[in-house]
From TrEMBL:
This is Uncharacterized protein. It comes from Lithospermum erythrorhizon. SMART domains: Mterf. Belongs to the mTERF family. InterPro entries: MTERF, MTERF_sf.
């Protein structure tokens, strides 16, 4: 029997469906209201697991997990229609296993194909998304199929297409982050873009940064305005192309964390004014952890080759890997100097900025006989370069 509290909730929801979306935890409240109708777990869990393994060649791990979650299935064949539909539009066995083992996998498999899933896929198709893009987007974010077709999926895709200008760019963005389906873009993305544009940031730069900082653009407009205000209070020039980086840097941490970070940097011997010079030159260099910043400064100063002034002038060094880049390069430069193999010390950019290939060509290969074992450092550099990874 449904409790009086649940009856009230159900009555209010039926009269005004939108109230459901404003509950603190709508999924919990709704499932609680209908808890008396929850089906008991079926006794044929093994049969469901065997079905996925034998019929669809799922791994035992995925099949067992799916069977334990699909408690509402009466027979394993119930989800056959859904699997057949997905296979028909290009989903591979691997894609299907990813969907089935996701948090919303059971809900998707047990949904009605014609009523629940097909209309949502059709929206993507009608807007011009390729089957390949649809497969990639949904496999990475199966839960988006549980959103309303007309109230969330279509409006979100339409807004993104208008903002980015093409379906190809929307597809690329959604492969990076599908958070855009979690928010009302008319109340987040659009007002944030309009406000930032009014601050002097070009639309071209903003759309480019949506790919780099997707969740930033989904913040409440009030929060974005506060971050802009803080950056302006630091006298950061709005005309600078780094202005947006300064804003997103502050948005990546709380005020308390930022203040503690400034305190740590000052304790390393860098003055307040120098910190803001660094911030204006490379805002995101200060987005790293306090430990990382401290470690970089200590390694640079410990080498006695370069000093704090170099760090202030080249704050990008704070983002470099200590073990894979700074220590090996400083060691090579120190050996070259101690053996008088170079006439003058390399500029600071050699420590953190130039590529491994360039560094090896200038400071390792010409002196490989004199460097001895240090030459083997180049093998690590070269292997990283061949794999296309930056170290």
């Amino acid at each position: 029997m449904i409790s009086s509290r649940c009856k009230i909730l159900l009555s209010q929801t039926l009269k005004n469906p939108s109230i459901y979306h404003h509950l603190p935890n709508p999924h919990l409240s709704f499932s609680y209201a209908f808890s008396s109708r929850t089906l008991k777990p079926p006794e044929n869990t093994n049969a469901i697991s065997d079905y996925f393994v034998q019929k669809h060649q799922f791994s035992n791990e995925v099949a067992t997990k799916a069977a334990s979650l699909l408690t509402q299935l009466k027979t394993p064949e119930t989800c056959e229609t859904m699997i057949t539909f997905f296979e028909g539009i290009g989903f591979s066995k691997s894609d299907l296993q990813t969907i089935v083992s996701s948090r919303k996998g059971p809900n998707i498999l047990c949904a009605r194909v014609d009523k629940t899933i097909k209309p949502k896929i059709k929206i993507f198709q009608d807007l011009g998304f390729s089957d390949t893009d649809i497969v990639c987007i949904i496999t990475a974010n199966p839960w988006l199929l549980m959103h309303s077709a007309n109230n969330r999926i279509f409006p979100s895709l339409s807004v993104l297409k208008n903002v980015l200008g093409s379906v190809d760019l929307v597809a690329r963005l959604l492969k990076v982050s599908a958070w855009f389906f979690q928010y009302d873009l008319e109340k987040t993305l659009i007002p944030n873009i309009e406000f930032l544009n009014s601050c002097g940031i070009s639309l071209e730069q903003l759309t480019r940064h949506i790919f780099n900082f997707p969740r930033f653009f989904l913040l409440r407009p009030e929060s974005v305005k506060k971050y802009v205000q803080r950056v302006d209070e630091m006298r950061f020039p709005r005309k600078s192309k780094l202005y947006i980086y300064a804003i997103t840097c502050l948005a990546s941490m709380s005020v308390v964390t930022w203040e503690r970070k400034l305190e740590v940097i000052r304790s390393l011997g860098i003055t307040h004014d120098q910190i803001f010079v660094m911030f204006q030159r490379k805002p995101h260099a200060l987005a790293g952890s306090q430990g990382k910043i401290t470690g970089v400064v200590q390694v640079i100063r410990g080498s006695r080759l370069y000093d704090l002034a170099d760090i202030v002038q080249h704050p990008g060094v704070l983002t470099a890997s200590i073990e894979k880049r700074l220590k090996p390069r400083l060691e090579v430069i120190e050996i070259l100097e101690s053996r008088n193999l170079i006439q003058r010390r390399p500029g600071f950019s050699a420590v953190h900025l130039i590529t491994d290939k360039v560094f090896i060509g200038r400071f390792v290969t010409p002196y490989q006989d004199q460097l001895g074992d240090t030459y083997f450092l180049s093998k690590a550099f070269l292997n990283k370069g061949r794999s296309g990874r930056r170290v």
